[in-house]
Design brief:
Blueprint lengths: L10 H11 L8 H14 L3 E7 L3 E8 L5 E3 L5 H4 L7 E3 L12 H4 L6 E8 L5 E9 L7 H43 L12 H18 L3 E8 L2 H8 L1 H18 L5 E6 L2 E7 L3 H17 L9 E7 L6 H17 L5 E3 L3
Parallel strand pairs: 10-11
Antiparallel strand pairs: 1-2, 1-6, 2-3, 4-5, 5-6, 7-9, 7-10, 8-9
């Protein structure tokens, strides 16, 4: 072939983006096949392809009406299409187009004549490939069909973006699981609830206490005790009790902010460290958590918690700070349970 093969201006960036999507050589997927079939139907062509281009080849993620799974890049019509990623490439008769007249895919089987391709463009502007339709007879593409092909290309890209997002999420979850495993080995995670344990709580509280002391920033601590949990275990069994502990842990984590730290202090007692949080804000957070647990649907009987609140002030150290919050929790249980008591009230 005498016509130089076009490359995108940012070819290395484009190839890196394609690799990041990890889509090449993956198995057929119904979502992509449905869009390819729809493209062939809308444009009235015997062939439709979802084509992705790497350094040396054009690989088809989905194909209708063509047995080939891939072809050499120098034969690729789609390589020309991605050179102008925001335009639809239409070739009405490839045998009369100087760019493609000597192309083996035109001269020999499958003897392509008509081609229309809509680039698959990422949000950052890289063209990964093309959604294209092909015919063996010269023809034109009306404006309505062309716009439909563009719309379907955007849907293909949406599928690719969703797949990419799922992959990133899975990687993040794997990293969290690995970190949790390592923390468990180091004795800082409670195995039942996957919250931090009392040792980790004490370390975190000491760090935040030092920060509050040094920079005169507010600091608060919540300690939650599940009301009448012993009787719950006796009535419904320890397995049911473990389910309650896990669910309370989930609700506590859900009510925490990114800067907070939730922990299982021991037994049926939980804690929430609230950096840069004054008493009023801590009481609001405590009430939101208490109310959320009370409203939750529980399998055996309603579950409530008593909450003690301690705020940084004249305590001697972090251990005294924690003890003060725990004593406030005891007061909350004595006051009738399912309530909040502040050590300063």
């Amino acid at each position: 072939m005498n016509v130089p093969l076009p490359f995108t201006v940012n070819e290395q960036v484009r190839l890196a983006a394609l690799a990041d999507y990890a889509i090449l050589d993956t198995a057929a997927e119904q979502g992509y096949d449905d869009l390819t079939c729809l493209a062939a139907s809308v444009c009235g062509t015997p062939v439709a392809l979802i084509s992705l281009l790497d350094e040396t080849r054009e690989w088809f993620k989905s194909r209708v009406g063509l047995a080939l799974k891939q072809t050499r890049r120098e034969y690729s019509f789609c390589a020309h299409a991605i050179a102008n990623p925001h335009e639809l490439l239409v070739i009405e008769d490839a045998s009369r187009d100087s760019r493609f007249a000597a192309n083996p895919l035109v001269v020999d089987a499958p003897a392509i004549r008509f081609y229309a391709g809509a680039p698959l463009v990422t949000r950052s502007g890289e063209a990964l490939g093309v959604l294209c339709v092909i015919d063996y007879q010269p023809r034109s593409l009306d404006e309505r069909s062309g716009e439909a092909l563009r719309c379907l290309a955007r849907q293909v890209m949406a599928q690719l973006e969703l797949r990419h997002a799922r992959s990133l999420l899975q990687n993040a979850q794997d990293k969290v699981a690995d970190l949790t495993s390592r923390l468990t080995l180091h004795g800082e995670v409670d195995a039942l609830t996957q919250l931090h344990n009392r040792r980790a709580l004490q370390i975190k509280l000491a760090e935040e206490w030092e920060r509050a002391f040094r920079y005169s920033t507010p600091l608060s601590l919540l300690v939650l005790d599940i009301d009448e949990f012993r009787s719950y275990n006796e009535a419904h069994g320890y397995a049911a009790g473990d389910q309650v502990l896990r669910k309370v842990a989930q609700l506590l984590s859900r009510g925490a902010r990114l800067s907070d730290m939730a922990a299982r202090s021991g037994g049926d007692v939980f804690a929430l460290v609230l950096p840069v949080t004054d008493l009023d804000s801590a009481l609001q957070i405590a009430e939101r958590i208490r109310y959320g647990i009370e409203l939750e649907e529980w399998p055996q009987r309603p579950i409530t918690v008593s909450i003690g609140v301690s705020t940084y002030g004249i305590q001697a150290d972090a251990a005294s700070f924690l003890a003060q919050a725990e004593q406030a929790t005891v007061s909350a249980k004595r006051n009738g349970r399912n309530c909040i008591v502040s050590s300063t009230l």
